[in-house]
User: What shape does this take?
Amino acid sequence: MFTVADWATAVSVVVAVLVVVSFYVSWRASRLDRMHTRVETASAALDAALLRRGAAVLELASRSELEPASAILLADAAAQARRASNGDGDGERELAESNLSRALREVVDQPGFHEAVSAGADGDELLVEVGAVAKQVHLARRFYNDAVARTREARASRLVRVLRLAGHARLPEFFDMDDEPPRFARLT
Amino acid sequence: MRVGLVCPYTWDVPGGVQQHVADLAEALMELGHEVSVLAPCDDESDLPPHVVSAGGAVPVPYNGSVARLAFGFRPAARVRRWIREGDFDLLHVHEPTAPSLSLLACWVATGHIVATFHTSNPRSRAMAVSAAVLRVALEKINGRIAVSEAARKTLVEHLGGDAVLIPNGVAVSRFEQCEPLDGWPGDGGAIGFLGRVDEPRKGLGVLLDAFGELGEERPGLRLLVAGPGDSDEVLQRVPEGLRDRVVLLGRVDDADKVRAYHSVDVFCAPNLGGESFGIVLTEAMSAGSAVLASDIPAFRHVLREGAAGELFPVGDAEALARGAAELLDSPERRRALSAAARKEVRAYDWRTVAVDVVRVYETVLLAGNDRSVAVAQRVRE
Assistant: This one.
């Protein structure tokens, strides 16, 4: 028959196991929480980089040294990208930002473009700025997708799904876009 | 901005990662940033002012050899103190997959962290074994940099995610000016080679075959070979009458390496393949050497399709001899190549590469400046 001492041992073992399990689960939950924070941070950085690039391209488009067709192409692409940044997703922003990358490459890498813009006041500074922000978008997107990949991986684990450790946090989405900077920026 | 760099390997021992961190620190300071480097040091007496010692490193078996690493609670406490006193905007850890200081820094720090991955060994057993632990430990990193495509692949295979590619820089200024070795290059002309002499892929054999041909025609021509390896084997391949004109320096220190580049008329890189970047070429170009290199993709790229140095078909000793003869006979051509090399190598200069690294810092900091680097609250002393 079970004695009181046996019961006490059994209960303390169960309690000990419960304590260990709950520590483990809470560690997993806090880990997931940290990953979500990282995704948010990276997403804020990507957002800021995209907005900066849009602003720099708009400034470039407003230069009087540009011929009007290039100016319109740049301004249109930048405006579309800005409008899409307030949208509700569905890949609209990814498409608009990709189009901006393409338009920027086509316009900036055409022969004679550099010389023309350099001739204007602070033209060189503006070109450096455009190159820098284009590269920054490329970096920020890598870092964001890196964070998303790891978070999605963690959320796919059985423990996380069964115990719903992710809570109400939305499953982060990859940001797919053409972020290839203009050629001149790649060489500097 | 205030940047804290963490190096996992002993500062006193020469190595690729240590060199990278030292050069990066200098380039960042030249750009006007404040830098502090934390590294294990056995000898703390002779450190530059921006390097902080984390104490000595302990030799332990790791990854198939004995490595000198810093681990345990004392180095961890040093990392904490360094972070607290440093008040950094951003932490940049190097090779955090090694069980040493960088990994500890990831463990104790909060805030913006950038990491650079150097290892390029897709079948790294150490990384395969520790992948699960590393995934968790490295989760705090906001931006990951790989120094080569191979390093990026290694990282992605073992740890998932992605990284941006920023290659190693070359400290161009260290190679620019130097006195040649005594008596070099000499009136008869000189050809140079640098690398392991007994590693077939470095292609010294091709150069020796070519020298056998060239040496007969040009009585004063000499060959300068710098690099470790068995020298007897090398001389075996050269016709007996020419052996006294092949000078083997053996392993050279950094200062003599620079002098060697300045001691020859033509610098030859006859590699048969397997080079992913061509660090030797960028060094020779920094020294303003007239370069003659085999036409492998990495060299073709670094030499700008031949504009900054001549290319010859891989493994073709006759073509090498022809190319070398042309260069030896034409000082103007050598001068033109030297000027082009000095110009093109600037793209690989640390001053340029550091700008790319700073761009990564700025991107990571874009998320908001409110979180500077601190010690994690959970960990108490």
About this structure: Chain B has two domains: 2-169+350-375, 173-348. The domain at 173-348 of chain B is CATH 3.40.50.2000 (Rossmann fold).
